[in-house]
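@channel sequence for tomorrow's demo:
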Amino acid sequence: MIEFLRQIWQPISKLPRTQQIALGAIVGLVFLGILFATLWGVQKEFIPLFEEELKIEDAGKVVNKLKDLNIEYKIGKKSSDILVSLSDKSYILLQLAQEKVLPQARPGW
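structure tokens (generated this afternoon):
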């Protein structure tokens, strides 16, 4: 490994200082670009669990059950807006129905 790094560093060390800096900046930008693309690609899209506004009591029951089930959720602008992952929404609705926690509001699509 050390020999490999020496083989890479030797020609770089012969470059003028400005070219070394430019090469370092390019490598850094490529690394940051890959890191950004990776992190951006794994972000989940969150959508409302219900299309109608929930009563605050119903929202509290749903949130408590989501916590019990270790399901990731977010609270929207209104405290009664519950956002869940797009890919998990159907599973969550089934779980809430099975646990008899579904409020009378219709599920949002």
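heads up for whoever presents: The two ends are 54 Å apart (CA to CA).
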